[in-house]
Design brief:
It is built from two helices and 20 strands. By secondary structure, the chain is mainly beta. β18 and β19 (280-289) form a beta hairpin. It is globular. The two termini are 30 Å apart.
Length: 306
């Protein structure tokens, strides 16, 4: 999308074979940090999960009403269940300042009968916890899937009010369960993916179920789970509560091999999402920023040789 940053791609296929991509987009002139004040979620379509995708519409944008997600919709994750399309996202409203918007993030889900919408919004599906809990400031970065027993499991990122303003912290991840894709979700009381004494160890979970087991890709914010700095790493779990890194945890580093044999090392590579075909990962979607001072950011789509 010329003139826009794009980020956070999530894709699902409809019964007619069309590939429906949902992504965050915001004007280039607002800078990369404009995601927190100006992001909307757009819908694009292709005949192939690798694209190219053609822009169709803005499915979740700013609203005039004074609601919880008035200004921003970001971090889309699309799933299909019960014949409907469920678009999980992070929303916020604020006064135009970065930290004010960031600290008002909440998780919502919008529901549609068709991939092009309209998507109906509701109240937040996952709010911060009670004062003094580990997630009492904000909830964000949702990823949801269905478990083998039919329940829905959501992993999310959260921040506590314990640290110094305006960043607060630390940043942790939690898990919640529901019998319905629209909730209510019951939180497990303790954070998951423990990393002792690290203020901000990981972010951007992507969760899926394969062969009766749960998997989650995370962005390592340092080199806490591998020797590679800021790589994408893989965890697994039998119950969604107790997680451990895989024996060979690195999914991909920031150094991408191109079809011509050249390499590109991106400053940021994050927001992993998978397209699964018949339950098997086939395409990895990631958001990239080429350099720290780059004025552009965009999504790339990588075929998975599984």
């Amino acid at each position: 999308m010329r003139g826009y940053h794009t980020w956070c791609a999530s894709m699902a296929r409809s019964n007619d074979g069309k590939c429906h991509l949902y992504a965050s987009a915001w004007p280039v002139e607002t800078g990369h940090d404009g995601w927190v004040t100006h992001s909307s979620i757009v819908h694009a379509v292709s005949d192939s999960p690798l694209g190219p995708f053609e822009f169709c519409s803005v499915v979740l944008g700013p609203q005039e009403a004074d609601v919880w997600d008035r200004d921003v919709a970001h971090n889309p994750t699309i799933i299909q269940a019960n014949g409907k399309w469920y678009l999980y996202y992070t929303g916020n409203r604020g006064n135009g300042e970065f930290w004010n918007h960031r600290n008002h993030q909440r998780i919502g889900v919008a529901v549609a009968s068709h991939p092009q919408g309209p998507f109906e919004r509701a109240e937040p599906v996952l709010l911060p916890g009670k004062e003094g809990t580990w997630d009492d400031l904000l909830t964000t970065n949702p990823s949801c899937t269905q478990t083998p027993d039919g329940r829905f499991i959501m992993i999310y990122k959260a921040v506590s009010c314990q640290g110094d303003a305006p960043r607060y912290g630390p940043v942790r991840h939690g898990v919640a369960f529901s019998s319905s894709p629209t909730g209510p979700f019951e939180k497990h009381p303790e954070p998951i993916f423990p990393c002792a004494d690290v203020f901000f160890a990981a972010e951007d979970p992507f969760l899926w179920c394969q062969n009766g087991k749960l998997f989650c890709i995370l962005k390592d914010m340092g080199h806490h789970f591998s020797v590679h700095e800021r790589a994408l790493v893989l965890f697994s779990s039998g119950d969604g509560i107790h997680w451990a890194p895989e024996e060979h945890p690195v999914v991909i580093t920031r150094r991408i091999v191109q079809t011509d044999g050249a390499h590109t090392e991106y400053d940021r590579l994050e927001r992993p999402q998978l397209y699964l075909e018949n339950g098997v990962p086939r395409v990895l979607y990631v958001a990239v920023k080429p350099t720290r001072d780059s004025d552009e950011s965009y999504n790339i789509h990588l075929p998975v040789d599984f």
